[in-house]
Write a structure and sequence with these properties.
about 160 residues; alpha/beta; Uracil-DNA Glycosylase, subunit E; 4-stranded parallel β-sheet; 8 helices; 4 strands; about 10% strand
Amino acid sequence: MTNRKLEQEDYRRSYRIVGVLQNPWFKPGTHPHLIDFYRTNYEFRRRVLARSRTGKVLREVFGDEVFREIYWTDASFESGEVSNHKSQPDLDFLEREIAGAVIVVAFGRVAQIAMRMLTLGGRAKQTHNFKYVEALHPTSRNHQAFLDSLQDVRAVLASDKRDS
């Protein structure tokens, strides 16, 4: 494993909360170096997410402080060229990403399916002990339903604040 990957792994493990989205997407013609940098540099990834439509909704509903307290990842790093691209979940990648998490929140159907495959298959439960909660994708068509789906997320986050 390269030093850069080890540094990112240590960085990821410093987070208690992991937010799982479906997969990244980049406009056609995006330089491959930027896509690679997105995959290997968490701060860059978080800044890209914060400026995206999804990130703007997440920052609006959670606030910037909580947004920064969550380690944001994807069910797969296979990227698409349109916003509604759906990649097959990469369970090995996702299992590494959630390692050490206290809370895992899956946003949207692709992330939820991936997490169910890990947890119901017994894979994640064998090596990880975390609270798991689901919410709709932040840019789902029914914004009110998304907001309603955050009730459980907020309850779990509030209980974590009390416990820590």
